[in-house]
Amino acid sequence: MAKGKLAYSCTACGNESNSWLGRCPICDAWGSLVEIEKHSGAQTLKDKSSVQSYKFSEILGSAEAPDRILFGMPETERVLGGGVVKGSTTLLVGEPGIGKSTLLLHLADGLSDRNDGRIYYIAGEESPDQIGIRGKRIGIEGKRLEIFPETDVDSILFELNQHEQSIVIIDSIQTLVDPGLDSVAGSVAQIRACASKLITWSKISQVPLFMSGHLTKEGSVAGPKVLEHSVDVVLQLDGNASGSFRSLHGLKNRFGSTNEMAVLEMRENGLVEVLDPSSDLISERPEGVPGSVVVPIIEGTRPLLVEVQSLVSQTGNSFEPRRTANGIELNRLVLISAVLSKQSSVDIIGKDIIVNVVGGIRVSEPAADLGIALAIASSALDKEFPASTAAVGELGLTGEIRKSIYIERRITELARLGFQRVIVPKSFVPSDSLNEIDINLIKVNNIEDAIKKF
User: Do residues 186 and 253 share a domain?
Assistant: First the structure.
């Protein structure tokens, strides 16, 4: 047996050091390094005879699409790539109170109706009575759903090994503890250790595993980034907790596309999938009011219409005018405002600019630049943007309007919902099939030209 040597591990982030330090150089925690025994590499080497290589051609010939487990939520299933894969691990992240636990209960209820076997819901945050109250309110039957209130990961694994399950749900990973560590629940070391044990069990038993995790104020998953790399699927639930709409994004998916999105609505009976999100998101759009523009965006393979609202007002103080963005990146708003100020006749100098994407949807693609710029111009000029007109295009620093991808899909969605005109880049050349759609294309070269068109 090779002799072990001493090392020091941070109880907060798990970083290892060969010498003791008063402060961890990774997470800056004071007094968090504890002494551990680290064995030499010779002890952990595997027997060479246990290692086997595989020819890629043979693997390719025998590769098949994984079996999917359905749970009766088609939009969420699409984000997952068509359903839940056996032995997969999924991390659902979102801000506290956004609806993660509610979505997991709906998923568990759908699985219990369509599959045999027990569904284990490991409750680390709430008591069974609290979960029962929520389940009754949103109409969950849970025929095969079992609630197991436990936070000790070893006790959880012992219980799971006593029975067969069709799926296991952990709510949440931050509440679990590994008794072999001295750190508290929620620390990086605990999250990493507990997740590693559960993921290993899931792979061996071929039981799908869902884990919920909270987002920090900075928008990152609380805990080590290795947690995102260790799981197969990462889903993020976004939205304004005070609003009704939620968006479910696929940030990572080893079994499907990573760009899909589902829109859900929080109602009294829980989260309900919105099958026609474009119609719902623009259904309450005000008429005859400046500062409102409809923008067609692409989420995965689906075109989605969102309403961008802007408010431009004279700043009320002598300091620098404010830029406030909700649903788009603040840096993107600053860029668009600078281009609008420099390359157009719209006067926004010394004025506050507020931009909001209605419905809690986040827009990140450059194709929305033109619509955002026109919403700002509409508010600054106090001039209504036509309700039957939309805009799509990327805005360059010199004010030119550049072509975006999938413009025809966007235009088709606009025509389906009754829009009569759409402002597009002049470089866009429609196909013959698009000419059959009853919608007028208004081509523009630059932002000043686009402003003159409404």
Answer: yes
Q: Which domain, by its residues, includes 129?
A: 68-275
Please name the residues in contact with 386: beta carbons below 8 A apart, sequence gap of 6 or more.
421, 454
Q: How many distinct structural domains can be found in the chain?
A: 3
Are residues 36 and 85 located together in one domain of the fold?
no
> At 15, phi and psi to the nearest 5?
-65, 140
| 73 and 26, same domain (yes or no) | no
pLDDT at residue number 41:
47
Tokens 């949807």 belong to residue: 361
* 132: nearest Cα among 149, 117, 151, 118: 149
In whole angstroms, give the CA distance from residue 181 to residue 191. Answer: 11
Cis-peptide, bond into residue 172, ω within 30° of zero = yes
Q: Does some domain include residue 398?
A: yes
Q: Evaluate if residue 221 carries a pLDDT over 60.
A: no
Does residue 344 lie in a domain region? yes
361-376 pLDDT, tens per residue?
Answer: 889 899 999 999 999 9
Whether the per-residue pLDDT at 443 is higher than 60: the answer is: yes
Token pair for 315: 């700043």
Q: Are residues 232 and 315 in the same domain?
A: no
Residue pair 358/309 in contact (Cβ under 8 Å)? The answer is: yes
Residue 348's pLDDT is what? Answer: 92
Same domain? 120 vs 106 = yes
The pLDDT tens digits of the residues spanning 285-323 come to 888 899 999 999 998 778 999 999 999 998 877 678 899
The confidence score (pLDDT) of residue 100 equals 92
| Angle (CA) 222 227 232, round 5° | 130
The pair of structure tokens assigned to 30 is 């004071």
Place of tokens 């698009």: 434
**What confidence score (pLDDT) does residue 208 get?**
93
In a domain, 148, yes or no: yes
Q: What mean pLDDT is predicted for residues 257-286?
A: 87
pLDDT of residue 223: 57
Question: Beta-strand (E) ranges in 330-418?
Answer: 351-357, 389-391, 394-395, 401-402
DSSP state of 360: S
359 with 245: CB under 8 angstroms? Answer: yes
Same-domain status, 218 and 75: yes
The per-residue pLDDT for range 329-351, each reduced to its tens digit, is 999 999 999 999 999 999 998 89
Distance CA 308, CA 67 (A): 40
Q: Which residue has better confidence, 78 or 50?
A: 78
Residue 283 lies in a domain: yes
Tokens of 155: 């006790």
Is the domain of 125 the same as that of 229? yes
In 124-254, DSSP assigns E strands to 145-148, 165-171, 209-214, 233-238, 245-253
Q: Are residues 261 and 320 in the same domain?
A: no
